[in-house]
Amino acid sequence: MAAAYEDNIGPDEPEVIQMNRNKIDLSAVVTEEPDLTPCDGPNDIPGPDLPPEEQADTPKPPDDPKERRVLIGRIKDYYRTFSKRHLAGPEWAQRIAEARSLSNAELNDLLEDIRFEIATTNTNALLMKAPMVAVAGLENALTQFTPLKLKGLTQCLEANQDWRDVMAELIIQYKSYSYTDPRYRALQIFAMTAYGVHTTNCALESTNNCLSATKVPDAIVNQSADL
Hints:
Layout: H1 65-82, H2 90-97, H3 104-145, H4 153-158, H5 161-174, H6 182-213, H7 218-226
């Protein structure tokens, strides 16, 4: 008789999975909804980002020939007008000679460089004259309304090399190196010139008044008339 044996292996107990044992607050978890926007075609399906060298180059539109002619003509006019003072040197001559081989974008960059060079050089000259115009006005005012005898102060400072060096250093230190529209430069030149002429005329008028108030001997008048 076959020996009977007991199978102690009972039915599998249900596996209990304990979730969130660490008691983490799951209320802040944000679930993102999938983007179900329909695609217009297979090209709209996002793919992996390719490095720049593997991306297809977008063909650039050809340069406008009319714009190109205008840019080259304007650059040549600038160079013919300002080559001796503002655009002197072999560097500018070489850049102008290579203008026809440049694209329209590069021609615009060259034109901006030319304008900036002319504006900064022109502005430096104006800034050098501005202090002297102010000194001339101060000299005129102090001479007329104070007992100070400062006639000729402006000419002395203009002839002083140390004064010119200090003014040049101050201009380099405080100028903005930004492009100034020629219209504003024209207004500045006009204002400075008008003020200088006014100061000169005031000085001449004051001198004439002093001479007319003083009785000049007839002998001197006759000798002056013969000159």
